[in-house]
Every structure is written in C-alpha cells, then in structure tokens.
Amino acid sequence: MARTWWMYSLSGCAMLVGYPGLSPRLQDALHAAVAGLAVGAAVAAMRLYPQAQAGGWYLLAVIQVAHSIVDARDGETASALAVGLLCLVYYPLFIIGLVLLIRGHNPRGQPAAGPALRWPPSHLLLLSLGLTAVADVTYAAATMRGEPVSGIADVAWSLGSAALISAALYPSMRALGLPVLETTARFGPQQIMLIAAGMLTTMLGTLGASRSSSAVDITVFTVGTLGVSLLLLSRTVSIVRHLEQAVARAQALRAEADTREERRRWSERRFRSIVHSSSDVMLLARPDGTITWCGDSIERICGYQPADLTGREMVDFLHPDDVSVAAYFAESLVVPGSSAWLDCRLRLADGSYRIFQVTGRNALNDPAVDSLLFTGLDVTERRQLADQLIERAFFDHLTGLANRALLMDRVDRAIAQHDQDGRHAAVLLIGLDDFKTVNDSLGHEAGDQVLRQTAERLTERLRVADTAARIGGDEFAILLDDVNTEQAGAAASRVLGALREPFLIDDHEVYTSASIGSSTTSGKYDDPDVMLRDANIAMHRAKSSGKNRCEAFLPSMRADAVRRLELHGDLQRAVDRNEFVVFYQPIIELSTNRPSGFEALVRWQHPTHGLLGPDRFIQLAEETGLVIPMGRQILHRACCQASRWHTTLGSELRMAVNVSAKQVADGRLLDDVTRAMRVSGIDPSKLTLELTESALMADIDLAAKRLKALRSLGVRIAIDDFGTGYSSLAYLDRLPIDLIKIDRSFVATLDDPMQEATLVRIMVDLAHHLDIPVVAEGIETRTQRDRLVALGCPLGQGYLFSRPQDPQALEGALTDLLAEVR
C-alpha cells in the first residue's frame, strides 16, 4: 500500500510539472482520468478501510461524481447554474464527510481540533478541499467576467483530486478514525491563520458576488459565505471550549499541586513534631560512628544541644564498661538493611549515666537516609523495676540474702553436679533459739535487727561459692559447695560461735544461740526439697537436745520426725478429748515432815502408748502452742482438786501449778486463773503459779506487768528451777516473787559430804535476805534433806517423800503422813 501511495504521489507531482505543456486534448483526457481515479479511490477506501467509517467515503465519492459530471458539461448554458448549485452543496457535504471519517472513533468530538496522532491524511483531505475551492473560485470568477477559464483552475482541480486519491491510499489512513490521544488545545498561529483564511475567503466571495449581475451567483456566494462563517464560528467556539477546559485542567492541576505541597509541608511539620516530642533519642551516624544528625528530643532527654553532638563519635558518650559490648553491636550492623539492639549506659550532659535500649539499623542502601539510624529509649526505671522484681522473686527483702526459691534452685544444681562428677555439697539449716522471746520482749523492730545482723555474720563467714539464704521467720540456710561431712561440721561450728556473740540492739546486748541441722549430697538425693527437709529434721533434733548445737542428719531421724509428726496430731486430739491427767507431788516442811502443799504435774494418757511423762510431749506442746489450752485444763483441774482437799485434808494446804512462757505471753492467763478460782472456789492465797526463769526473762517488763496483775488476784508467784537459766538475781526486786524453787541439779550435789554446798547456801541466804521462802526440788536421800535443813531451807519435795501420784493414791499416803505427824 505504501508503494502504491508513493506512485500516485509522484504521478501528481509529474502532472503538476508537465500539465501546462500538454495539448488541450491531452489535458482534457488527463483531467477526466484524474476525476475517475478520485471516484475510484473513494470507492476503494470504503472497502479497504471499514473502520474509517464507510459512510464518510461514500459521501465523498458521491459528491466527487457529481462534481465530475458538472465539470464534464462545461460550455453548456446551464453550466453556470450547475456550478453554483454544486458549490452550494459540495463543500458542506465534503466537510461532513471529513467529519464522519474522523469522528467515527472519536467520541470526544474533536475533528481537526488539534494535531492528530496521524496527521498526513487529514491534511491531504483539507488540501483537496482547498484546491477544489481554488479551482471553483477561479472558474466562477472567469465565468462571471466572460473570460476564458485559465489553466490554473484545471491544475488546481486535478491536484485536488490527486490529493483526495493520496488521502484514500495513504498507508496510515486506516488509523484516521481511531481515537487520538487527548492533547492540550492551543490557540496558536496555525489556528489564527486558518480563521483568517476563512474570513478572507468569505470576503472575496462576497466581493465577487457583488460584481456579478447574476442573482444565482449572489445567492450561491451568500449561502457559501454563510456556511463558511458558521464553520468558522463553530471552530472558534470549539477552540474556546477547549481553551476553557485546558484552563480548568490547569487550575485543577495547580490546586492538586498546592494540596500535595500543603500535605508535604504538614507531613514534614508532623515528622518534626514527632521527633521533637518523641521519648526516643534519634540520630544518624556514618559507618565509623561519627554523628551526622540528632533529633531535637535529645535536648529534653539527655540535656545536649543537637548541634553540639554533630561530628562527635558515639563511643564518647558510652560508659567505659559498655564499650566492648557496643563493639559487637556495631559489627552486627555492617550489612546494609541489618538491624540490632543492645542495652547500654549513656552519659548525660550533667555527667550522670542512664540505661538506654539502643536500636540500630543500617540504612546505607536507602538513598533518602544513607546513614546508620539509631534510636535510644531510656529504660532506666524499667530496668530498676525489673531488678526489683527479680530481687523480690529470689532475694529476701529484709536481709538481702537469697530466699527459699533461689536456694532450692542452687541446691538442685548442687545435686546435679554431684551426680555428674561426685563433688559433694552440704546444707546447713539454722534456727535461732528462742527468737520469739526477743520479738515478744523487745519488739519486732529489734527482732528484725537481729535477723539482719545474723545475715551479716553468716555472709562474713562464707566463701564466694557458698550461698546464704533466709527461708522464713528465724530460719536460715547455707549451701556449702564442694565440702565433705567434716568440713560441713567445722563450718557449722563457726556459725554457732558467731551467733553466740551478743547482738547490739539499741544500745542493749541481746544474747541468743542457734540450733543447726546439716545434710550432705552423700545421702544420694534427687530432690532438693528432701535434702532441705532432712536438714530441718536434724535442726529440730538439735533443738530438742538442748539447743545451741549442731546435728548431722541420720536416716533414723526421719523415722523420729515421722513419729514426732504423728505425736503432734495425737497431741491436738488429746487437747480436744481431754486426755491429760494430773498427778500431784506433796511439798513438805523439811523440819517437821508435814505436808505444806502440792505441785500439779501433767501426764498424758495416750490411747496406744499408755501413760506418757512430760518429757515426751511438753516441748512439742510449747513449740506448737498447744501448751496454752493444755495448761488451761491443768489449771482448772488442779484448782478443783485443791478445793476438795481443803475439805478433807485441811485448808492450809497450797496448790502449785506450772505456767509456761507462752501462757504468760498469751495475755489470757489472768482470765484463765480468775475463771479457775471462781469455778473451784479456791482461796487465791492457796494458789501458787510457778514460772521458769526463761519465761520471766523473755520480756521482763511484760512479765512484771502480768505478774503484778496476777498478784492483784491474791495468788502467789514462784520461780521454778532457780539458778539454771538467766542470771536473774538483779530482777528479783523488780518482780513480785513469793517463792524460789532450787533446781534438782543443785540438790543432787549435797549427797557428797566432801563437797561444799556453796551455791545452795548462796541461794538460801539470798532468799532469806529478800524474805522469800525457798523450796528444794528433787530430794531423794536423807542426806540431802539433812543438809538442806542445816542450810536453813524450810521446804522441799522429791521421791524421798513421795512420787507424783494420782489424787486417790496420794490421799491415802497423805492421810497416813498427816496422822504420823500429828
């Protein structure tokens, strides 16, 4: 198709050059041939290019045939009228055909409104229209003047037909009707020249028509002028409309650009505000650690001006101990896109250090950043809180030692280590003796000070590998690493010695001791709880064996502990079932062998074990607190029995009842004594309450207060086992004491006539000076009785006179004794 178009184009150029030299006959023949070819090209276009709208080519073919027929009748009388009518319809129809061709696939309706994507066919059709118009105007002008038609009209008409043929056969003609890309309409020089040419044509046509005398010519040119004017008006309106659209688009684009710019500025302001108010420190640095940019928040958080940090190295602000860790952190940021974090201490402007969680990211592969990006969050308070939580979870808040949880974890590790390589470890369980006495007498604050000082003493005597822990109350534990049984015993002895030393509490010296139980991994443990339990069993054995000592765990102790646990349950049931019985031992006037009174002594009638002495259960009752309800029962029975004996044996007999330290500290002893005397009806002066020295000295002020309240009831107060406990001589004048009982250990020394009874003499003389009666306990021989009488001791009791017996058996013995005395 391209080759055919070029052939026609070259033929048209040759015709333009050679046409004037042809003979009239050849010119007519060429003219007719070109006209026929034009019609044929239009018809061919309808078949070859259906997408270009066949209707447009059909219309062009019809008007081209009509134009050729009119032109072929040149010289006839009707030719002028025919030419006029042809001009009247030819050009509007040609323009309509051109519009149909272009608008076939152009719904936006822009025929020739701007440069088309493929412009040559459009220009060729417009050229054909223009050349035809030139030929017709030339022909009409010559006809109106009565002059012969020049060859210019024939050449112009032939070239117009050739242009039509070229447009029909142009290679890109098939795309003429396709939608063109929307472009901005411009009212430039081409549009101005086009409108000017149209206006000039109308003016020339009007001028020519005015010089013609033919009404037909005037009508034809008037109609033509009107058509051209309407076309020009339509074109102008179209251009103005497109200009308005272009302006509207430009305004919309400008508004959109302004909106985007405002959004960009707002985003930038928001970013700056976020950076400034952020709780994170933000900075950029080069790979060598040199700071290139800092966020404004660094001034608020760290006290630095951002400009002061630019150019400084980050390592300058690290704590010296964190530099090595930061080096590993930097190595993890070598690869672009990588990230890492660490916790480190950073120096603030005031010289102090805070803990920051620093997150780093290598953004060297990001052109917008091209740096290492770091953010730092101050986590000092969070870290301190975490440390506090850890400390609370694994450390005792009072002493700072490890707590039970941490101790058990380390004991478990020690057991695993022993299973792995045979290395031994030992656990020392330490219980402070009579610690409750310190709490009750001096207050809990003093008790806390004792616990803290105990922790300090333990820590001072341990190795780095050992662990000291407080596991609750007054109990401590020590895990000794890599020791044998002998080494564990030596360590326990050192601890005992350290805890024997007095504690200085508020300018007062407080003496205490400890009982220690030990267990070692040689016992083949697989559970840390069991190992600690065995040490606890050994510790309780040490307490029951006299306190202030250390006991190593033996397998037999476990059975004893089980029996002790069973005994505890039985003891609780005994209190509930009132299984305790009271035996009585008479107190004798040594000079006359006359009964002066009785001491109530408790026994336990166990359902399966039979009658148990106090040595089997009193200490357990003290430890468990069951001694309080048990003592209440014994007091009530003794008072009732004394009331009965006052009727049968004589009202001068007194009843002595033992009272424990726990009963004194309990605070209900006064009510218990009052109730027992009211129920029994006993005379208060006939009731004596016996307390040990340890019970009195536990809290001297409290004891004095409670004893004075009891004395106000009329009862008497006696110190039992005098001389075996605290050195209480200085307190005798402070306490309302009515009787002193010398312990049996001192009385036993009187059997040796060669041994001086110095201590007994001192105690008896002291009592005489204080005008306090004395009772000697544990008299078993006549020698002991005789020497006591010689020393001036008025009263005594013991197996020499009578064993403790139940009331019925004792009544018979007392009746005989009283009869003998009388």
Strand order of the largest sheet: 13-14-16-17-18-19-20-21
| Proportion in helices | 55-70%
The end-to-end distance, rounded to whole angstroms, is 168 Å
How much of the sequence lies in strands comes to 15-25%
Name the assembly state: single chain
Q: Write down the domain tally.
A: 5
Mean pLDDT: 80
Choose one word for the global shape. rod-shaped
Task: Work out the number of β strands.
Answer: 21
The residue ranges in which pLDDT falls below 50 over 5 or more consecutive positions are: 107-119, 175-185
Q: Give a short account of the largest sheet.
A: 8 strands, mixed, barrel
Structural class: alpha/beta
User: What is the gyration radius calculated from CA atoms?
Assistant: 65 Å
Total of helices: 28
Can you walk me through this structure?
By secondary structure, this protein is α/β, with parallel strands linked by helices. The protein contains 28 helices and 21 strands. The strands form four sheets. Strands 13-14-16-17-18-19-20-21 form an eight-stranded mixed β-barrel, surrounded by five helices. A five-stranded antiparallel beta sheet has the order 2-1-5-4-3, with helices on both faces. A five-stranded mixed beta sheet has the order 7-8-6-11-12, with helices on both faces. It starts with a helix and ends with a helix. About 3% of the residues have low confidence.
